[in-house]
Structures
1.
Amino acid sequence: MMKQFFIAIGLIISFSVSGQNANDPAITSIKANYTMASIKAYQESAVLKVEDYYNYLNLLSSRTTTEDLKTEITGALFSLFEDNNVVVIDITALPPTTIPLADLVTKIANQNYSFTPYNYENSIVATDFWTTKYQLTIEYKETKTEQICFQRVFFKPMMKTFGSTKKEVWALFLGDVSL
């Protein structure tokens, strides 16, 4: 009887240990896996993703970009985000409101907007994200406006397949944009 009790306790412990996975906050915490110097380097890479986001929006808004290229650009733009249903600022509206990213892409198409982000500042790192604050200049026809934006940037582990090998890698994704 006592032997069965110890076997049951052993099984419970082994199941609870094996049940811990990549979704465990202690395992997926940025600070638990990277030094502050490494995190700063990833934050600098995230700034490049924010710049890519606005460069893609500029190309989609341009009347001179071909439709075939716009299709490719749209795919590249959405690949910057972990979630295609992300909500961003409708930077074309006065005052700005929130809008799904897909709607913003449709709204700016062939309108010749110009978006220029600058003056970046990263927040303190949370468990799996930080916020990048930046200023954004929006030019449309003769009008030029300025906004201060807050872009959530996620940095988390994910499984990638390289041929027949699976490996956990950490990836940067843009998240929602707010004022």
Note: The chain has six helices and six strands.
2.
Amino acid sequence: MKDDQTQNTGQLYFRLCSDHLSIEAIPKTSIRINFQKMREQSVENHELVMWTPHFVILKNQSGQEITLRPDGRMVVRKSTSEAIARQSAAEMLAFLLKSFVL
């Protein structure tokens, strides 16, 4: 599934989404996020915009929206640059690994 737009950095693979405005971040290792715990506790420095059993949408303090799936895949939208979107995804993964991984 690796193509010209997929890049491997740190703990995540990054791919430019087809709209060319969003970045998809895919964890290199298999993880499982506890969405129920996330719903019950506040997510530090993020606003919970939407919660379903299948995905969560969070908004960070910079206004970026991060759509998160239970397997750790993320789509970062409304970012001012690709570098900032990548940094936001890396920070989110570190936070998830610390607090919400089963």
Note: The beta strands are 6-9, 12-16, 23-27, 46-51, 56-60, 65-68, 74-77.
